[in-house]
Amino acid sequence: MFPGGSVRVLMASFRHPMTTPGIGIPVSRVRPEAQGTELTPKPRRVRTIMYKIIEKKDLTEVTKLFVVDAPHVARNALPGHFVIVRVDEKGERIPLTIADFDKKRGTVTIVVQEVGYTSALLNRLGAGDSIIDFAGPLGKEAPMRQDGSVALLGGGFGVAPIYPIAKELKLREVRVTSIIGARSKDLVILEEEMRSVSDELHVCTDDGSAGFKGFVTQKLETLVASGSSFDEAIAIGPMPMMRAAALSTKPMGLKTWVSMDPIMVDGTGMCGACRITVAGKVKFGCVDGPFFDAQDVDFDEALRRNRIYKQQENEIYEPCRRGGEAR
After folding, report:
1. Above 80 in pLDDT, residue 300?
2. Which of its termini does the chain have fewer beta carbons within 10 Å around, N or C?
3. How far apart are CA 126 and CA 137, in angstroms?
4. Whole-angstrom Cα distance, residue 49 to residue 147?
5. Are residues 131 and 80 in contact, defined by beta-carbon separation less than 8 angstroms?
6. Degrees (nearest 5) of the Cα angle 2, 306, 123?
7. How far apart are the first and last CA of the chain?
8. 51-138 is classed in which CATH architecture?
């Protein structure tokens, strides 16, 4: 899942000097018999498509799973893709990684952790409610091997986008070792689902309330030290966790991919809000990614950019967090 950003763009209306007053049709293109007369454009009917929530499931107190009716998104979805979601007409656009999809049913699954105002609004919706915008699939497919052994690291909400990758790798008969973690047992998500698509599953918690006490990167180091070998690794989670994965796997010489979650607005490469530096070059998280070689990412810059609007986000979210409405 990605944090979202919002941008409002004001566009001034423009009329060519040689146009029919009021409607912007060049005079040269208006029939001679119609010139000098009033022209009234025919009203257009606007068709609104809403995306209905088929199912909602509480994974934790702050993390919810939604199954959304979105057949055109499901038809083209691949592991690693994301969608841009808008809750209502006045809402901001936030990117969310696809957690699962069913092409036959025409459904897409997303997992939302409440981290701000828009994710809080989304988590208040239930089965039968609708989302106004559900654009996608966007981004590039996750890089996946055809053989060998892969370590998948999912931190917190990052377990959700790891799941479809693990499922696809198993279909390719790649050996999958999944390491998932959270701060405590009550925050671990999709454990049984991950177990069903993994050859090995290791659960980690910061406080030791379930499984290995420590971070997912520490568990990976333990496995490698005990003789396990991997051809590649994929790490998805909060940005500090992905930076830790990059630092941890570098001495191992283990090729590691991360799914970057910069601030994003349109998701199609036009706004430039999601730019990050990879191997010294500017890349856009939405169209060049979201997956990049972890060793090439400038995480210090990415973390600074993600904190740019933190004050404004907190000011808007705080009233909502207390149970009220945002300003």
Report:
1. yes
2. C
3. 23
4. 41
5. no
6. 35
7. 25
8. Beta Barrel (2.40)
Q: What are the distances in angstroms from CA 78 to CA 91, 161, 270? A: 27, 11, 22
Question: Would you state the pLDDT for residue 34?
Answer: 46
Instruction: Please name the residue ranges forming H helices in 178-265.
Output: 191-196, 216-225, 239-249
Q: How would residue 252 be classed by pLDDT, with cut points 50, 70 and 90?
A: very high
Above pLDDT 90, what percent of the chain?
A: 64
Return phi, psi of residue 264, to 5°. Answer: -140, 145
pLDDT value of position 118: 87
Domains 51-138 and 149-306 share a fold: no
Tokens of 229: 């070998």
Q: Looking at residue 4, what is its pLDDT?
A: 40
Beta bridge partners of 138: 82
Tokens linked to 8? 């409002």
pLDDT, one tens digit per residue, over 122-161 is 999 999 999 999 999 999 999 999 999 999 999 999 999 9
Beta bridge partners of residue 202, listed in sequence order: 179
Assess if CATH 3.40.50.300 describes domain 149-306. Answer: no
What span, in angstroms and rounded, lies between the C-alpha atoms of 142 and 236? 11
Q: Where are the domains of the chain?
A: 51-138, 149-306
- DSSP SS3 for 264: coil
The tokens for 89 are 């007409």
pLDDT of 9 strictly over 50: no
What integer pLDDT is reported at residue 43 of this predicted model? 53
User: Measured between alpha carbons, how far is 113 from 220 in angstroms, rounded to an integer?
Assistant: 25
Question: Residue 240: which of 188, 285, 307, 286 has the closest Cα?
Answer: 307
Percentage with pLDDT > 70 across the chain? 81
> Whose CA is closest to 50, among 82, 88, 106?
88
Find tokens 């606007």 and name the residue. Answer: 46
Gap between the Cα atoms of 65 and 131, Å rounded: 14
Which residues touch 219 (CB under 8 Å, ≥6 apart)? 179, 181, 202, 204, 212
